[in-house]
Structures are given as C-alpha cells and as structure tokens.
C-alpha cells in the first residue's frame, strides 16, 4: 500500500488544519497516511514514504518557523529520488514575502531529487471552503503522480 507522510509546523492551528485536510483527502484515495508535527520526527522518516508532504507557515517577513529549521536542514542532506512530494502552507499577505517558506521547501525537495506531485498550495491564514477544494485537488494530483 502507498504510504504518505505529512510533516507540519503550526503556530496558530491554521497549518495543522491544512495538513489534516490533505491527510483526509489522501485517505479517501486509499493512501495510508502518517501525520506528525515537525519536532516529533526526523527528515529521514521520509525515506520510508512514497509521498512526502510538508505543511508549514511562514513566520514574520519570509522566515521558516524556528521549530522546523532542524527538519529543513536534515531534509537537505537526504536523497529522495523516486519519492513524490508536495508542499502546502499558510501565510499572511500583509507581508511582502507571502508564504515563502512553502517555496523554500519546494526548492529543497527539488534539490534532493524528489519529484513534484502538484503545484504548491498557499492559504491566506485559515482554510476557507475554496481552499479545501484546492487542497483536495492537490492531494489528488500528488497521488496520480506517485502511482
């Protein structure tokens, strides 16, 4: 069975909700899902997965959250060739560098050989109905690419 691992960083709960929506959409496609907060896992746990997903918020004006920095650094040391990845996250368009942490993880996955499963999804603060539809479509595309 196909295994997806979702790792998230969430300060306000918005990004955790995003990760939960993606997890549910993957499970509806008969994908086994493991979801963890970023401080509870190591990046090398992605080596066991077929699908690797990061959900993160962008802190302040373009920074990765402190709690996901170690995970990010560990990720850059891996070779995830043959794995499919996706990145989603939340941000606040008040800042010039909107959801830039999503883009940083996208670049990291590309550097370590993973195959992009779907375009990044960036959510303004909390999920609205149209955002849930985007996340469900994201999950569908990632699965299609992985299989």
UniProtKB/TrEMBL annotation:
<dbReference type="InterPro" id="IPR029039">
    <property type="entry name" value="Flavoprotein-like_sf"/>
</dbReference>
<dbReference type="GO" id="GO:0010181">
    <property type="term" value="F:FMN binding"/>
</dbReference>
<comment type="function">
    <text>Low-potential electron donor to a number of redox enzymes.</text>
</comment>
<keyword id="KW-0249">Electron transport</keyword>
<keyword id="KW-0285">Flavoprotein</keyword>
<keyword id="KW-0813">Transport</keyword>
<dbReference type="InterPro" id="IPR050619">
    <property type="entry name" value="Flavodoxin"/>
</dbReference>
<dbReference type="InterPro" id="IPR010087">
    <property type="entry name" value="Flav_short"/>
</dbReference>
<dbReference type="Pfam" id="PF00258">
    <property type="entry name" value="Flavodoxin_1"/>
</dbReference>
<comment type="similarity">
    <text>Belongs to the flavodoxin family.</text>
</comment>
<dbReference type="InterPro" id="IPR001226">
    <property type="entry name" value="Flavodoxin_CS"/>
</dbReference>
<protein>
    <recommendedName>
        <fullName>Flavodoxin</fullName>
    </recommendedName>
</protein>
<keyword id="KW-0288">FMN</keyword>
<dbReference type="GO" id="GO:0016651">
    <property type="term" value="F:oxidoreductase activity, acting on NAD(P)H"/>
</dbReference>
<dbReference type="GO" id="GO:0009055">
    <property type="term" value="F:electron transfer activity"/>
</dbReference>
<dbReference type="InterPro" id="IPR008254">
    <property type="entry name" value="Flavodoxin/NO_synth"/>
</dbReference>
<feature type="domain" description="Flavodoxin-like">
    <location>
        <begin position="4"/>
        <end position="143"/>
    </location>
</feature>
């Amino acid at each position: 069975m196909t295994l997806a691992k979702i790792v998230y960083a969430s300060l306000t709960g918005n990004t955790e909700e995003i990760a939960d929506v993606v997890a549910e959409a993957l499970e509806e496609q008969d994908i086994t899902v493991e979801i963890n907060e970023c401080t509870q896992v190591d990046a090398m746990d992605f080596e066991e997965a077929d699908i690797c997903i990061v959900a993160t918020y962008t802190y302040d004006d373009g920074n990765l959250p402190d709690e996901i920095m170690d995970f990010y650094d560990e990720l850059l040391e891996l070779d995830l060739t043959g794995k499919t990845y996706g990145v989603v996250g939340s941000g606040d368009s008040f800042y010039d560098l909107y959801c830039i942490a999503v883009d940083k993880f996208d670049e990291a996955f590309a550097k370590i050989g993973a195959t992009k499963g779907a375009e990044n999804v960036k959510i303004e603060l909390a999920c609205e109905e149209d955002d849930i539809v985007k996340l469900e479509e994201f999950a569908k595309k990632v699965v299609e690419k992985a299989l």
